[in-house]
Amino acid sequence: MDLGKYAFDILLAYGLSGILILGLVLQSVLASRAARKRLEEAEK
Amino acid sequence: MSIWEYANPRRFMATSTAVLPWVWTAAAVLCATGLIWGFFFTPEDYRMGYSVKIIYLHVPSAFIAINAWFMMLVASLIWLVRRHHVSALAARAAAPIGLVMTAVALLTGAIWGKPMWGTYWEWDPRLTAFLILGLFYLGYIALWSAIEAADQAADLTSILCLVGTVFAVLSRYAAHFWNQGLHQGASLSLDAEENVADVFWLPLVVSLAGFVLLFIALVLVRTRTEIRRRRIQALAARERLA
């Protein structure tokens, strides 16, 4: 696919956004798992 | 059944457990459809060329960045008026999402602005209001972390949220209030004449719907985490007293 003269700008925008959004999703899921484990241990 | 029953943490946890897989799935499908459709199957714009493809990230992230603050405002008002802890925790849970979406909107806007406007940044009313909104998100998150007493933190952050709402409104309407600056008006509107052309509009709406569902999924997950952390703190406090 030829994105023309804006190829670098478009790929940079998608790359940075992907890193930020996927990072947020990953952090949210990992924090949720960690909190669930800690609560299970605390309730034992 | 009253909506306030969901203010019960147990009820909230049970309901969110049931709906989360569906919300995650729908968010993933719509985000992927909207972004792939927009990226691979739309033509170039006659003025902006292929750089128009950034719209599928820029508009939905800006939409979420602004509306996450309004969601926090509603949750904060519920906390201030009715003292439901789940609403205060939901507001806290939404703030990092709003911050990341603000960063995505600012970054994609800057990257898009360079080829279109000749500059990454301009102290345009809308851009400036958006930057200040991002700073309010940072301040809001910092204030929650700085105060140990949970109810006091919820009170003060709710008041900060009320103040920051001015900039959330300005981020959306600055281009209308001050008819100046580089940023154009809305790309999506209830007024069909303001919308972008259909060929861009359809994948943009799908992408926007995906981002909205992603926001809902993240708020649910992060609120559940906050509820669990609060429960851990309560158990630790009870243990210290025993």
Automatic annotation (TrEMBL), chain A:
UniProt cross-references to InterPro entries, sorted A to Z: Haem_export_protD_CcmD (IPR007078)
Regions crossing the membrane: 6-30
Superkingdom per UniProt: Bacteria
Principal subcellular localisation of the protein: membrane
GO cellular component, one term: plasma membrane
Protein's membrane topology: Single-pass membrane protein
Location of this chain's protein in the cell: Cell inner membrane
UniProt GO BP: cytochrome complex assembly; heme transport
Coiled-coil regions listed in the entry: none
Keywords assigned by UniProt, alphabetized: Cell inner membrane, Cell membrane, Cytochrome c-type biogenesis, Membrane, Transmembrane, Transmembrane helix, Transport
Pfam families on file: CcmD (PF04995)
Described function: Required for the export of heme to the periplasm for the biogenesis of c-type cytochromes.
Entry similarity comment: Belongs to the CcmD/CycX/HelD family.
Name assigned to this protein: Heme exporter protein D
From TrEMBL, chain B:
Listed InterPro entries: Cyt_c_assembly (IPR002541), Cyt_c_biogenesis_CcmC (IPR003557), Cyt_c_biogenesis_CcsA/CcmC (IPR045062)
Membrane topology designation: Multi-pass membrane protein
Main location per the UniProt record: membrane
GO molecular function, one term: heme transmembrane transporter activity
Keyword annotations from UniProtKB, A to Z: Cell inner membrane, Cell membrane, Cytochrome c-type biogenesis, Membrane, Transmembrane, Transmembrane helix, Transport
One Gene Ontology CC term in the entry: plasma membrane
Subcellular location: Cell inner membrane; Membrane
Transmembrane residue ranges: 21-42, 54-81, 93-112, 127-147, 159-179, 199-221
GO biological process, one term: cytochrome complex assembly
Domain Cytochrome c assembly protein: 4-183
Function recorded in the entry: Required for the export of heme to the periplasm for the biogenesis of c-type cytochromes.
Protein family: Belongs to the CcmC/CycZ/HelC family.
UniProt name for this protein: Heme exporter protein C
Gene that this polypeptide is encoded by: ccmC
